[in-house]
Amino acid sequence: MMTTEELIRDTLHGRAALIRDGAVPARSSAAQAQARVIRSRRRAAIVAVAALAVVGGAAMVRVSSEDRADGPDPADVGDLGDRVLSVRQSFAGRTLIDSAETTGGAELSLRAGSARGTQWLLACSGVGSEYSLHVSVDGREQPPALCDPMAGLGDTSWFMVPPAGAGFESDLRLWVTGTGDAEPVDPADAVLGAAAYALPEPYATLGGHDVYPIEENFGAEWQVLTFAESEAGERSVTLEVPAQEGATMLDLLSSGTGEATVRLAVDGRRVRTVPDVYVLGGRSLGDMLTGGEAHRVTLWIPEDEIPPDALLAVVVRERVR
Fold this sequence. Notes:
The protein is mainly beta. The chain is built from two helices and 22 strands. It has a five-stranded antiparallel beta sheet with strand order 1-2-10-4-7, with no helix packed on it.
């Protein structure tokens, strides 16, 4: 069996010429399975990395007049065999709520959600980076992402809407423009897709974020191995990671008010990332630690003034066997 290090190296080396604006397109169903992770940004790390996008804050959740405490049962989505884009019924503990697809570049709208929180997978496929996918969640537009001829659901972009006891459904709208343009267009070959998945019960809340038992990355599922969290207002958190047989993956989380930044160091050396620093309040999934040796992981705030409510957390995940 190919090791995780080999899988990541081959995936990145084989697609290095295809990386553009943070997107790594999948060129076949097998490659798509290996590289299925939202690729809104890429950064250099110890072995390789992939990014996690999170839409945080209750402002992103549409509040309805219905006070429903529990999420909906998965929708009766019927036969999805006639879809251009493959839709999975479940992955990493997430369960499909509903999905939609349009062809010919037509605008897409979908209303869905779960009181436990929702993960949305989006795609703009069939056309290249001369076109961009635009996303609106409850009327709030998100940064556009480049289309790709071979993109599957989640390859163009994805995001999470946090849990809410009521009004958990969100209105999603997707449309296409020429890259750098504002006017909507409808290229004949463009396929837009969206799928909403109910999140599982969280493993814990760390660094101000819900941490889920399993995350998917590099075509594999990764479960929580160990973690560390700072006290509020502390400058840093450090985690000693014992040697593991295979590679492990970092899930980095932070929260707090103000405009502080967060940086990562492994074994006493700062990890160069893209961007160079993370913003306090964000989350990043995908930095890899090599197997066969112990590591010391530190997440810290470099500014002189530390927000009193700042929280930092490092979660280490191992591949599910």
